[in-house]
Every structure is written in structure tokens, then in C-alpha cells.
Specification:
By secondary structure, this protein is of the alpha+beta class. It has helices at residues 2-14, 37-61, 74-109, 138-151, and strands spanning 17-22, 29-35, 181-184, 195-198, 204-206, 211-219, 223-230, 234-241, 243-244, 251-252, 257-260, 273-279, 282-284. Among the domains are: 2-65, no CATH class; 160-288, Glucose Permease (Domain IIA).
């Protein structure tokens, strides 16, 4: 019975049929094809397999695959991730820069005391929700007026000294702080590339020569620091100030007040000015060029 059934099934597949095409008007035979069920199955399967192969090849070997959701090139995904990381880094840098500039603006304008400045490395929003900014106290306003009054005509009275080797072409220095005395001298061997000058509280810091401020900001080690670029590759550095009165890019003249003496930064152990002189990238001992006690 089974053999008969299989024979009937195979007979159906291999039984030939003729497909005749006739002219509809004259019934004339145009052409004819001899087919079997097996031929039809093989033909249809072959067409389907070819179509699948063409579709897969188009997806794998052409850019069309990038339009399929979830199927992206490995290099493309890596590039997207790198761009996202860069965008996040740029956004973070811009936020820190905005906070830093806001700190500087508040200090210079007197809206905020240095002791209340928040750390720009913390991931916190700008303090726009704490109400009115801190007002300048009356004592601080009075101090500023007294300093301006006392210092208005004292520039010509500042003691100056001729600069010795190796920068003989520069002529005169103004003292950076009045009445300051050295508590720690210059010592290059211990990497102390300047002198520590102690003076009275709230004593103004002055530029020692004409020049341009190239840095005015805060670092965790040196506190509020200001650096002035002078002629002939000479730099003067003023560290550990309580506040800064000039911004980067400002031009200053010798004797101009640029900061207030203070005690900021991890390396500071008390109110003083750490003063450095650099010539052609080499540190100089300020005590050799200024009459410091």
C-alpha cells in the first residue's frame, strides 16, 4: 500500500503537462510548453533563492545596511561614541569655564568675597538660587577708599633699584609690597623659586614693572595668583593673594595695585606674598634686584 502511494505521488510530480498559448481571436496555437509539477517547483524555488541572495548581498556589501534599525557599521558606532564623549567633555569644560569666569567677575566687582567662592571642580550648578549676592561690607568699602587715597600719589615715592645681571637692560623695579620683610628666601635647590614677604593685613600688591597681565585666577596650591609679562621676556608672579584686582589681558604700569595680600592656597601658612621673578624661563632671586629686608 505504501509503495503504491509513493508511486502515485511520484507519478503526479513527473506527469507531463502541456501549456499552450492560443490566439484569442483565431484560436491559432502560438506556442506551447511541456511542464511537470517538479519543473514548476524547481523553477519557483530557484527564483526565490536568487531573490534572497540578491537581497542579502545588497544588505551586507552595500551601504544599505546602515538604514536598517540596529544594524550599523562598527566604525560608525565607534565614531558616534567618540563624538558623544567629546561633546560631553566640551560641555563639562564650558560649565567649569563659566563658573570660573563668574568667580572672577564677582571678586573684581566686589559682589563676593574670596572666602565664599565655591569650588569650580564640584559638579554643582551656579549659585543662582541663593538670593542676592553677598554685599560688600562698609569696612571693606572704607578700606578701599583709604587705599586709593594713600596710594594715589605714592608711586613716585616708591624705592627703585637698578637691575643687575643677567637682565641689565631692564632699569628699575617698584617694590611689590610696602614694608614687607622676607620670611623665606629664594632657594632653587628646594624648588622655592621666589621670596615670601610678610606685610600688614590688606596691604595692596603692586606691579613691579610695566606689563600685561597674562594670568589672573585661582589654583588650589597657590591660591589667587596673578602673573604679569614684562618687556625682554621677564615675568613677575604674585601668589597667595586674598583677591585679584586685574584680569588677564589688562595692561598695568609700574606701581599699579593688582591684588591684595592674603593667605589662600594649600602652600600658604599665613598671610604673605610669594613673589617670583623669571627671566627667559629661568628663576631669579628677587632679593638681588629689589631692596628687600
Amino acid at each position: 500500500m505504501r509503495m503504491k502511494s509513493r508511486k502515485n505521488w511520484w507519478t503526479k510530480l513527473t506527469t507531463p503537462y502541456r501549456l499552450v498559448l492560443l490566439n484569442d481571436e483565431t484560436f491559432e496555437e502560438v506556442t506551447s510548453f511541456q511542464l511537470t509539477r517538479m519543473n514548476v517547483y524547481v523553477l519557483v524555488s530557484t527564483v526565490l533563492v536568487v531573490m534572497v541572495l540578491i537581497t542579502v548581498s545588497a544588505i551586507v556589501f552595500t551601504p544599505l545596511k546602515e538604514y536598517i534599525p540596529g544594524y550599523a557599521d562598527v566604525d560608525t558606532r565607534q565614531t558616534v561614541m567618540e563624538l558623544k564623549l567629546r561633546a560631553d567633555s566640551m560641555q563639562r569644560a564650558l560649565e567649569l569655564r563659566e563658573r570660573y569666569l563668574e568667580n572672577i567677575r564677582r571678586i573684581i566687582s566686589g559682589e563676593l568675597k574670596p572666602s565664599t567662592i565655591y569650588d569650580t571642580t564640584l559638579k554643582v550648578p551656579l549659585r543662582s538660587d541663593v538670593g542676592e549676592p553677598a554685599r560688600v561690607s562698609e569696612s571693606e568699602v572704607q578700606l578701599r577708599k583709604e587705599v586709593e587715597k594713600l596710594e594715589r600719589f605714592t608711586i613716585l615715592q616708591q624705592q627703585t633699584v637698578a637691575l643687575r645681571q643677567p637682565a641689565r637692560h631692564l632699569v628699575h623695579f617698584f617694590l611689590p609690597v610696602r614694608g614687607g620683610y622676607i620670611t623665606q628666601p629664594f632657594d632653587a635647590a628646594r624648588k622655592h623659586f621666589g621670596v615670601d614677604l610678610v606685610a600688614v593685613e590688606n596691604e595692596p600688591i603692586k606691579a613691579v614693572l610695566d606689563g600685561t597681565v597674562i594670568f589672573s585666577g585661582f589654583t588650589s596650591e597657590t591660591g589667587y595668583t596673578i602673573i604679569v609679562q614684562h618687556a625682554q621676556n621677564l615675568l613677575s608672579v604674585y601668589k597667595h593673594n586674598s583677591s585679584l584686582l586685574r584680569e588677564a589681558g589688562d595692561h598695568v604700569r609700574a606701581g599699579d595695585i593688582i591684588a591684595i595680600i592674603g593667605n589662600t592656597g594649600e602652600y600658604s601658612t599665613g598671610p604673605h606674598l610669594h613673589f617670583e621673578l623669571w627671566y627667559n624661563g629661568m628663576p631669579l632671586d628677587p632679593a638681588q634686584y629689589l631692596p628687600l629686608s
